[in-house]
Amino acid sequence: xxxxxxxxxxxxxxxxxNSRSVIWDDEVxxxxxxxxxxxxxxxxxxxxxxxxxxxxxxxxxxxxxxDQARKTARAExxxxxxxxxxxxxxxxxxAEEVASLANFGDLLxxxxxxxxxxxxxxxxxxxxGKNIATFLRGKLARDITVQDIESLLSKVRERxxxxxxSNLFRFLHAAFEIGMGTEDRRKRYRIxxxxxxxxxxxxxxxxxxxxxxxxxxxxxxQRLETTGMSQESITAFRLLLLTGQRVEEILGARWSExxxxxxxxxxxxxxxxxxxxTQRGHVVPLSEMAIALFAAMPRVGPCVFPKRGDPQCPMPFxxxxxxxxxxxxxxxxxxxxxxxxxxxxxxxxxxxxxxILKEIRDRIQNHALHDVASKHYDRFDFLPDKRAxxxxxxxxxxxxxxxxxxxxxxxxxxxxxxxxxxxxxxxxQLARLLTL
Length: 436
Description:
This protein is α+β, with helices and mostly antiparallel strands. The protein has 22 helices and 9 strands.
């Protein structure tokens, strides 16, 4: 009989005999409907390939309509008759191929393993773990769509985590590029195009402009002791406030770089943001307060600020960021939101206020110098000027912490101190003013 929708809807299971559980269609040879004891129904196709009888399930009735199933059956029969193909074998081979392909989670792990910078690799893994759902990680990497990428990025954006969104976009784009790289990876992932390329790019992050006031610097210094932070985190925050250096450069400090006799932190080029370009290290003069902080730290490995559980590695950046978040989110006494990187900007502003020249401020913080003389000819390290600047900032920080008034006399002697580092008179006057 020719199958119709009415016949299919009325069909019921007729017993245990397999032949009686199938209704065949007279219109397309080998096409029929199988009824299961549970009442479920599925379209099937019977055909011969290379002398062997084959039975192929086309799909469930209800998922496929009769017309769709009949059309599919005709297409599969055409492959058998004109190409000598075996649809069942082709389906099996495709299933095996799919089973051998790596999923999205494998791609993310593969990418993170290629990152040479341990902090960047840790940031990437943390971002993937926090923002990419398990079900999506289990999806084949080649099946990840632009819509998948935009969906997960939009969820991060809705949380207001714009920096996280930007970094996640960058990590994902690089991961798919890795997957399409070497021949082995192309076979492993079978990615035809990078879906991140077509996804909406995160909005550019506004330039940072958060600056801690003198009152906020005093409050931050004092509250570090009452927030439950580790001593390593407290010391790291205070060294950032005393030196104005980059967070990674302080957290990555090694005992071999600290010379307490010369009162310097000598950072090698390979630990500097600008080191790859300049091939030059950076010498940071240490004030008395900075030296005291370093001297009080226990030595448990090569790193001044060891990673918890692994003293051979430095504390990751995120540890200090999370500590700052906890401080800002304190329900009893919240602190106006800031990031550890905002401290560097704040210190540079305060150093400008006390009369430290811009060139010296830039050298203290190891900003890139773009004039030809500084880049190619000037090899003087400006250590005396940098030391005077940081010692002058230490005096100002002492005033801030003591909540002493900012008088004209104080301004006069402090500006003289940073401009006349060999003159003892300004320092004596500052000490006198601070104790009045």
